[in-house]
Amino acid sequence: MPVDTQYLLNRLEQLGFKTNTVEHPPLRTVEESKQLRGELPGAHVKNLFLKDKFKRFWLVVAQEDTSINLKQLASILGAGKFSFASADELYEYLGITPGAVSPLALINDSEKKVAVVLDQRMMSTSPLNFHPLRNDMTIAISTPDFLAFLKDVEHTPQVINIAQQAEADNEAAAV
To answer: Is the model more confident about 115 or about 175?
Structure first.
């Protein structure tokens, strides 16, 4: 059974992290988030829960305005080809529903089946804003605390500059 938001918030507090949680109407997309978030400082993100041709699962987290070419990203990561995971797979591996995708859901991946990819540009901003397992709340957490959270849930992220990698691949293809 996946953990709930209160368990997550309690765990973050036990770890000594200072967070700020804001309640709001449910948000399912980046566009809805932009309209309703107000003046929340820090990086606002998009999260892609993907599976590759080898049936491996990936959670890609980047700043909301980052352009992500899934074909190029799959090539960079050696994933073959990406597709979006289903709602059932999202619940099975991360214990959440569509619209609430968040790296904080890795607390539910006790079998370590999901690889985590973070955009380097996002990591230079603090705080980071995520849904805490549901899409009617946003939690701001410092970047160092977020990385400590990933360590606590035993998920070592790959940090890459997604936009720069895509540009480099485009330049190489043009030569």
So the answer is: 115
